[in-house]
Write a structure and sequence with these properties.
This protein is α+β, with helices and mostly antiparallel strands. It folds into five domains: 20-155, Sandwich (Jelly Rolls), CATH 2.60.120; 171-375, no CATH class; 392-444 and 534-628, Probable tRNA modification gtpase trme, domain 1 (Gyrase A, domain 2, 2-Layer Sandwich); 446-529, Aminomethyltransferase beta-barrel domains (Alpha-Beta Plaits); 676-767, Beta Barrel (Elongation Factor Tu (Ef-tu), domain 3). It has 14 helices and 44 strands. The strands form nine sheets. Strands 11, 13, 15, 16, 20, 22, 23 and 24 form an eight-stranded mixed β-sheet that branches. Strands 34-35-36-37-33-27-38 form a seven-stranded mixed β-sheet. Strands 39-42-41-40-43-44 form a six-stranded antiparallel beta barrel. Helix 11 (544-551) crosses helix 12 (601-612). The protein is globular and about 70 Å long.
Length: 768
C-alpha cells in the first residue's frame, strides 16, 4: 500500500473541465461514492491516527491489485454495517443496491500511527461502488480517542456532469441551465429548490412569482428592497430571518441551506444597457434570457429584472460605491430554498464574461427541485480551510432541550445557539446569572485532543503560557499567536496526563496550525478534533456550586465539587452519564463547565435543571452572555482581538508571562511589543444612555485615538459601559474621551476611562 503525505488538494481551475470532487467520511461514520473506470481516488487522513475501512462492490476483483491485505466478503454485511457506526443506514443502502454479479471487497487503510495528511491513491480499473468508513466509538469526556474525518478526492477524466454533488433526495426536477442561458420552471408550495454552482465562481440570478397572482394578471415577484427592509439584512440566510418577500410583503421562499453566504440583492440582473455602456452592444444578458424563458408563463418582458443574484459577490465601499469581484462559490456549492406558496421560477447562468462577476468565464448552473415531503436540516456552510469540504450548521447535544424553550437561535461558528429564551428575555437571564444561577449551551467551542510523546513540546512552542508548569488536573488560559505577535485565538489548555492535553478555543484553524507546527518541528504529536464528541454547558452564578453538589458524583481519587479549585477539573457522572467538570467560565461569576458526549446532553441538562429549580436556575442565551462578559472584561474574537492585535492590546497581557524563557511562535515579537506598547484595552464609562457599539471611534478633540470594541447597557451598574482599545497616551484611568457618532465629528458622547474590568475587578466572586 502506497502511503503519501498530501499537503494540498488538486481543485480544478475556473473555465477548465472539473478534475476533482471532494467528499468527506465523518469520524464514526461513512461516505458512499461511485468511481468510473479511469477515475483516480485519493483517500486522506487529515488529522492522523484514523483507521479507514474501504468497501468496494464491482463485477470483478478491483482492490487486490492495489492492496495486499484486500479481502473478499459475503454480502451479509455485518462487518460493513459495524464499521460505518453512525451511518449504519448508509451501509445497509449500499449493500441493498447490490447487483447479482457484484463482488464485495474490503481493505483497511492507515492506522494508529499514521501522520496527519497521510494518503492512499489508486486508479479504478473498472466501474465500482464504494463505501469508506472512518470507524470509532463515542469518546468519553476524560478520554481522547475521538474518531476523525477522512476525505476522498476524486479526479475524473469523464464529462463534467460527474462534478455535480449527489442529490439531497430524489429530485422531482433535474434541470441543467447551460452557461449564459436562463430557464423557467414551476414549483409547488412546500417543495425545495436547490441552485447549484457546478464549476464554481458563477452567478445565478433567481426570480420567483406568486403563481396564483400571476394567473390573476398580477406579477407579484421577489422584491429585494422589501426583503432587505423586513429581514433587516442585505441577504436573508438560514435561521429566523430567512425569507424573501414580494412587493406586497408576502413571503415567497425561505432559505434553508447556504454553502456560500455571499450573494447580492442590490443590483439588477445584467441587461443590455450595461453591456451597451461598456462597449459590447448586442451582448447576451440575463434580462433578455429571463424575458424569453418567462414568456410561456405569461410574464411581461422588462428592460431590467430586480433579482436575487445568488453567488454574485458585491460590496459597498467606504466611498458608498458598490463594487464586485469573483464569487466566493466553489464547485458544487449551493443554496437550498423552500417554496412558501405555488411559484413560477426562473434561474439563469449569468452571461457576463467582461469582468470578474463570473470569474471571466460563464459556466453551467444546475437546479434540482425536491418533493415537499423531504426533510432537510437548516444550515450555513463552514470550511476550516479553503480546500476543506463544507460543513453545515449542526445542533448540539442540548438542542432538544433549548429548542423547546425558544425559537431565537443564531448561527454561531457552525452551531445553532440560543440568542435568548422566550419566557424571560436577556435582562432576566442576566440577573439570574448575577444573583442565582444560569445554564448555557457553549458546545460551539472547538476542542482538540493533543497527544503523543512530544505533546508538551508542541504546546510549549505554540502558546504563550508555560505549559511545563501545568499539573495534571489543571487548566490554564492562554493566547496563540502568529510570528508577528498578532493573535490566532485565545483558549484554555487542560492537562489530562503526562503527554495528554486538550485545547478548548474558538477557531477550527487552531488544529490546522498546530498540525503544521508539529510537522515543521518533526514532533511526534497528534492534534485530533473532538468538537463533535464533546459538547458542554456552562453553569454560572453564585448558586452553581450548590446545584452541582446535588447531581455530580465523583470517585474517591477525584476532587469533589466542594474541593474543586479555580481553573481545575474533576471527572465524574451526572445522571449516570460520564462528565468532566471544570471550574471555568465566561461570566465573572463562580461557575463551572460540564463536558459530556452529545448523546448524554439531554439527560445531563435535565438533571441540572431539576436540581437547579429550588435555586432559581434559568436558561441563558448569547445576548445575556454579552452583557456579563463585557462587565467582567472578558474578550471576544473579532471584537477585542484579531490577527492585527497582540495579547497586550487585547487586555490579556497576563497570559504572556515574561518568565517563560523558551522561545515559542511570536515570542520575539511579543517581547518587543511588551517593551514598547502602543495601544491598551481599557474600560469606558459612557455618559447618558445613547447606543454605543463595536467599531465606534473614540476621539480626543478632532483626532481619533481609539475604537470601541464592545459595549452594553449594564443592568448591575445602571449605565452604559464599553471596552475600547486606545492609544497609550490616553489610556490612564480618569482620562476624558468622546465617542464619535454620525460621521464621528457631528455628534459626540462623553466618556471616561475607568478601572478595568468594570465588574468585580479583583475577581473575588469567581474565586469564591
Amino acid at each position: 500500500m502506497n502511503l503519501e503525505v498530501t499537503r494540498s488538494l488538486d481543485v480544478s481551475a475556473k473555465g477548465l473541465r472539473p478534475r476533482s470532487r471532494l467528499l468527506c467520511a465523518p469520524g464514526g461514520g461513512a461516505a458512499a461514492f461511485v468511481l468510473r473506470a479511469g477515475d483516480e481516488a485519493t483517500i486522506i487522513d487529515p488529522e492522523g491516527r484514523q483507521i479507514g475501512q474501504l468497501f468496494v462492490a464491482s463485477d470483478r476483483p478491483v482492490l487486490s491489485s492495489h492492496f495486499a491485505d484486500a479481502a473478499t466478503l459475503t454480502f451479509g454485511g455485518d462487518e460493513c454495517v459495524t464499521a460505518c457506526g453512525a451511518d449504519a443506514e448508509l451501509a445497509r443502502a449500499f449493500l441493498a443496491a447490490r447487483a447479482d454479479a457484484e463482488l464485495l471487497e474490503t481493505t483497511l487503510l492507515f492506522g494508529r500511527e499514521s501522520v496527519a495528511g497521510a494518503s492512499v491513491r489508486f486508479k479504478a480499473p473498472a466501474d465500482m461502488r464504494c463505501l469508506l468508513a472512518a470507524p470509532g466509538d463515542r469518546m468519553r469526556p476524560d478520554e481522547q480517542d475521538a474518531p476523525t474525518e477522512l476525505r476522498i478526492n476524486i479526479q475524473s477524466p469523464h464529462d463534467r456532469a460527474a462534478a455535480l454533488p449527489p442529490p439531497l433526495a430524489t429530485p422531482r426536477l433535474d434541470l441543467r441551465v447551460k452557461a449564459a442561458t436562463a430557464s423557467g420552471y414551476r414549483v409547488a408550495a412546500g417543495e425545495y429548490i436547490q441552485i447549484i454552482d457546478v464549476e464554481g465562481r458563477q452567478c445565478s440570478d433567481f426570480l420567483a412569482f406568486d403563481s396564483k397572482a400571476l394567473a390573476d394578471g398580477r406579477e407579484l415577484a421577489i422584491d429585494p428592497t422589501t426583503t432587505r427592509t423586513l429581514m433587516g439584512s442585505a441577504t436573508p440566510g438560514p435561521g429566523l430571518y430567512s425569507k424573501y418577500f414580494d412587493q406586497d410583503m408576502g413571503p415567497l421562499v425561505e432559505v434553508v441551506r447556504d454553502t456560500v453566504g455571499r450573494h447580492d440583492t442590490f443590483m439588477l440582473a445584467c441587461n443590455s444597457k450595461y453591456y451597451d455602456d461598456m462597449g459590447y452592444p448586442g451582448h447576451g444578458n440575463c434580462t433578455d434570457n429571463f424575458n424569453a424563458a418567462l414568456a410561456a408563463f405569461g410574464v411581461r418582458p422588462r428592460r431590467g429584472w430586480p433579482a436575487v443574484n445568488f453567488f454574485y459577490n458585491t460590496f459597498v465601499s467606504h466611498d458608498n460605491s458598490i463594487g464586485m469581484d469573483e464569487p466566493w462559490s466553489r464547485p458544487g456549492d449551493y443554496v437550498l430554498l423552500r417554496a412558501l406558496t405555488d411559484l413560477v421560477c426562473a434561474s439563469s447562468s449569468c452571461a457576463d464574461d467582461i469582468d470578474p462577476a463570473n470569474g471571466w468565464a460563464p459556466t453551467d448552473i444546475h437546479v434540482r427541485v425536491y418533493d415537499a415531503a423531504s426533510n432537510f436540516s437548516k444550515g450555513i456552510a463552514h470550511r476550516m480551510t479553503p480546500d476543506a469540504p463544507p460543513k453545515l450548521t449542526r445542533e448540539s447535544g442540548f438542542h432538544s432541550r433549548t429548542s423547546a424553550l425558544t425559537r431565537g437561535f443564531i448561527e454561531y461558528r457552525g452551531f445553532w445557539m440560543p440568542q435568548c429564551f422566550a419566557a424571560a428575555g436577556p435582562v432576566a437571564e442576566y440577573w439570574a446569572c448575577r444573583e442565582r444561577a444560569a445554564l448555557m449551551d457553549l458546545s460551539a467551542l472547538r476542542k482538540f485532543e493533543i497527544t503523543g510523546p512530544d505533546a508538551e513540546a508542541l504546546l510549549q512552542s505554540a502558546v504563550t503560557r508555560n505549559i511545563r508548569k501545568l499539573a495534571v488536573g489543571q487548566v490554564v488560559y492562554t493566547a496563540l499567536c502568529y510570528e508577528h505577535g498578532g493573535m490566532i485565538d485565545d483558549g484554555t489548555v487542560f492537562r489530562l496526563g503526562e503527554n495528554n492535553f486538550r485545547l478548548v478555543c474558538g477557531d477550527d484553524y487552531c488544529g490546522v496550525w498546530l498540525r503544521q507546527l508539529a510537522a515543521e518541528q518533526g514532533l511526534r504529536a497528534w492534534v485530533k478534533s473532538s468538537t463533535d464528541q464533546l459538547h458542554n454547558v456552562a453553569l454560572q452564578g453564585p448558586r452553581s456550586r450548590d446545584i452541582l453538589r446535588e447531581v455530580l458524583a465523583t470517585p474517591p481519587h477525584q476532587p469533589s465539587i466542594d474541593e474543586l479549585k479555580w481553573f481545575r477539573f474533576t471527572i465524574g457522572k451526572i445522571a449516570n452519564a460520564p462528565v468532566l467538570v471544570s471550574r471555568t467560565g465566561y461570566t465573572g461569576e463562580l461557575g463551572y463547565e460540564i463536558w459530556c458526549h452529545p448523546d448524554s446532553g439531554p439527560k445531563v441538562w435535565d438533571a441540572i435543571v431539576a436540581a437547579g429549580e429550588p435555586y432559581g436556575l434559568a436558561p441563558f442565551g448569547f445576548a445575556a452572555l454579552d452583557m456579563v462578559r463585557i462587565e467582567a472584561g472578558l474578550i471576544f474574537a473579532h471584537f477585542e482581538f484579531c490577527d492585527q492585535t497582540d495579547p497586550f492590546e487585547a487586555g490579556i497581557g497576563f497570559s504572556v508571562p515574561a518568565e517563560k524563557l523558551e522561545s515559542y511562535v511570536g515570542s520575539e515579537a511579543l517581547a518587543r511589543r511588551r517593551a514598547h506598547p502602543v495601544r491598551q484595552l481599557v474600560g469606558l464609562d459612557i455618559a447618558g444612555n445613547e447606543h454605543v457599539g463595536h467599531g465606534d471611534p473614540v476621539h480626543v478633540g478632532r483626532a481619533q485615538v481609539g475604537v470601541v470594541t464592545s459595549a452594553t447597557r449594564s443592568p448591575k451598574l445602571a449605565k452604559t459601559i464599553a471596552l475600547a482599545r486606545l492609544d497609550m497616551a490616553y489610556a490612564a484611568i480618569g482620562t476624558p474621551v468622546e465617542i464619535g457618532k454620525l460621521d464621528g465629528q457631528q455628534k459626540r458622547l462623553k466618556a471616561t476611562v475607568t478601572r478595568f474590568p468594570h465588574y468585580n475587578p479583583d475577581k473575588s466572586r469567581v474565586r469564591a
